[in-house]
Design a protein that fits this description.
The protein is mainly alpha-helical. It is 71% helix and 4% strand. It has 9 helices and 4 strands. A hairpin with a 2-residue loop joins strand 2 and strand 3. The longest helix has 26 residues. The N and C termini lie close together (10 Å).
Length: 251
């Protein structure tokens, strides 16, 4: 899909390929869980999918950077993502007023511990897409902004789906399929800030972009065909797909 010198350090290891297959199968299994085990099984199945995807991204980075550097980044991202979610759910800033239900466990101070992993599993793939777009020598502000766009495009899928599944609730439903538009400004702000603080370099672009592209494809099919949310499916398809097309045109 992508080529050129910017795709260096792009090899897929057998471990990464095995994790990607496991993650994809876990995602594909979600409708089966609903049909066979009911609504309560979705929280368990979704949690496993998040964990497997986060581990996949972790291994991709660790194989390129080593575990010490990867662990340092993981600690920084986890702390900042949790802080943003805690402030958001307690104060309404910067996402708008919402709260998590009891569906996702365990929780600490009202925030499911799974939530920072969601940032971990998709922000590095968004960095890879942004790096293709702005180039290796792109300035940090431009890189952080484009990475935030790529990351926020994923939430065009995510938020309507998670609200429909009862994982969190908005105090005042908004105009984007029940999601307040301020939520997306919050996603842009926080993801750009984390990116600027992390300053990721020497990203393993091909496997990370593959994670982004597979997420785009599976979310489009899942929400469009199985979860009966054609509106978010189309918007997410255009949002994440637009970022991938932009990256493709730059390589």
């Amino acid at each position: 899909m992508f080529n050129g010198r910017s795709m260096q350090k792009s090899a897929f290891s057998m471990q990464v390929l095995a994790l990607m297959v496991t993650w994809a199968l876990t995602m594909i299994a979600q409708p089966v869980l609903l049909w066979t085990c009911g609504q309560a099984a979705l929280a368990i199945g979704m949690s496993w999918a998040v964990v497997v995807q986060a581990v996949t991204v972790l291994v991709i980075l660790a194989q390129a950077w080593g575990w010490k550097r990867t662990a340092s980044l993981l600690a920084l991202m986890t702390m900042l993502a949790y802080l943003a979610e805690f402030l958001g759910s307690q104060t309404g800033f910067p996402f708008g007023k919402y709260h998590y239900t009891d569906a996702l466990q365990p929780q600490w101070a009202g925030v499911p511990l799974l939530i920072p992993l969601a940032w971990w599993m998709m922000l590095p793939p968004s960095w890879a897409v942004a790096r293709l777009i702005v180039g290796e020598r792109g300035r940090l502000p431009a890189f952080a902004f484009v990475a935030a766009l790529a990351f926020t495009a994923w939430d065009l899928f995510l938020d309507p789906q998670m609200v429909a599944w009862g994982f969190w609730e908005w105090e005042t439903p908004g105009s984007y399929f029940g999601i307040p538009l301020v939520n997306y400004l919050g996603w842009l702000l926080v993801s750009a800030l984390i990116t600027a603080l992390a300053r990721p370099r020497d990203l393993p672009l091909t496997p990370l972009v593959a994670v982004y592209a597979i997420t785009w494809l599976l979310q489009t099919i899942g929400q469009g065909l199985f979860w009966f949310q054609p509106g978010p499916a189309v918007c997410g398809f255009l949002g994440m797909g637009g970022m991938l097309l932009w990256a493709r045109r730059k390589t």
